[in-house]
């Protein structure tokens, strides 16, 4: 609900407005307190009553009860994404080895948190990463580089029937997940603490980078899926031979080249703000769909397991390109908003 206030002038040059009493009481604002004012989008001004808490640790205390270790791991990731940089975990009795391992897995899976204290029923975790030196833009660009190499290498693995390359692609997916969780954490902190926002990037731009990071994470998942499908049907003792038939392989190579080109074009259009390049990238979706349909039609179905794997590979090639076109659409939307 909006609240109108009349601007007044005092001392000949200072503009003042009164604060809504209900808001001041709800946030514990008293006479003499210092408030922070942060310029926002379209001439708005954000008034933050939490002047002293920018660098204060955000603590979360968790008491373990009857929780499955895997479920608790997901809970820890959620706490991390929500911006807590100190996590105090307590159990009523001695923690099981499985629970301790889940906590250690968490610190290996995310960027920053480390175990600082540990006993039989307590674990303290602190995030040691200085997020001010690792902004959301840098993280998204890093995700793009990893995702592009994963997609390119997954295509090479299929072309050559190389299981080692495929395994490497699968392992790199964890790096993308870690970076995307970091982006999610930074975005959440920016929404909760406007003063954490980098001066060179607006709230809307941060949202666009977050959305692009999410799309890149999904493309990386499809690169992983391509590699997993290959590993399911590749003879570990034979390399240099693709499991695809000659005709299917022809369409796979063309579709792969198109999909990879769409990823490169879409991200370039986003970074450079190039609407023409974004539109050209989106226009290639029809080419990709036709190559996918042609490739699927060449699968003979004589070997059910192989046919399912090849169909899965072709589907992920198409989906990777379609997701790339979503990045191009974000680039267009961003440029129109700027204009």
If you had to describe this structure to a student in words, what would you say it looks like?
The structure is a single chain. The chain is an alpha+beta fold and 339 residues long. The protein folds into two domains: 59-131, Translation Initiation Factor IF3 (2-Layer Sandwich), CATH 3.30.110.20; 133-338, Methane Monooxygenase Hydroxylase, Chain G, domain 1 (Up-down Bundle), CATH 1.20.58. The protein is built from ten helices and eight strands. The chain has helices spanning 21-26, 69-81, 97-109, 136-160, 163-192, 203-233, 246-272, 275-283, 285-297, 304-338; strands at residues 8-10, 14-16, 36-39, 45-48, 59-64, 86-91, 113-118, 122-127. It has a four-stranded mixed β-sheet with strand order 5-6-8-7, covered by helices on one side. Strands 1-2 form a two-stranded antiparallel ribbon. The longest helix is centred in the last third of the chain and has 35 residues, at 304-338.
Outline the fold blueprint.
Layout lengths: L7 E3 L3 E3 L4 H6 L9 E4 L5 E4 L10 E6 L4 H13 L4 E6 L5 H13 L3 E6 L3 E6 L8 H25 L2 H30 L10 H31 L12 H27 L2 H9 L1 H13 L6 H35 L1
Parallel strand pairs: 5-6
Antiparallel strand pairs: 1-2, 3-4, 6-8, 7-8
Helix pairs in contact: 2-3, 4-5, 4-6, 4-7, 5-6, 6-10, 7-8, 7-9, 7-10, 8-10, 9-10
